[in-house]
Amino acid sequence: MTEEEMWQAVLRNDAEYDGIFFYAVKTTGIYCRPSCKSRPPKRENICFFENSEQARQAGFRPCKRCRSDLIDYQPMKQIAEHVKRKIETLYREQAKLSEEVNGFGVTERRIADIFKDEYGMTPKTYADKLRLDKAKQFLIKTDMKIIDIAYSVGFGSLSAFYRFFEKEMGITPSEFRKSHPI
């Protein structure tokens, strides 16, 4: 690969070249991935390296923006995974879940977009799926009262649980239980 090809990849912020080479900026002392979103430096101020170790040995430090020191830096994936773990532990407690998610420093809308890109559904859809799966388990495997099941999976009222369950399953919780005897 020629230096001109590498330079063009840097100008395009081309992620396909990440891991193939790194570039360093002489004036800042920083080395980056080709996909780094920082403003492109002047061509005369950069040099290229085959790997991050060579850049470090030449005296450059990793970029804090593209995290050129990490092999697999995927902040959006990490956010999505963190949200998923929070949902799995707090899906029964919607207010607490919302509070926790708001503490990420990212808007709810952005979190929903990140989560959907990673998992193909919104955080609310995922939480609803968990609630429905748990409710079905309780209905099939226990003799708990339906109202107790509703509260245990995070519903504030029996009527809200019935509406949700019937919308998702096409039958009421009572009918579901009858069709799946213990």
UniProtKB/TrEMBL annotation:
Its cofactor is Zn(2+). Keywords: Activator, DNA damage, DNA repair, DNA-binding, Metal-binding, Methyltransferase, Transcription, Transcription regulation, Transferase, Zinc. GO terms for molecular function: methyltransferase activity. Residues 81-179 form the HTH araC/xylS-type domain. It comes from Megasphaera hominis. The keyword Disulfide bond does not apply. This is Methylphosphotriester-DNA--protein-cysteine methyltransferase family protein. GO terms for biological process: methylation.
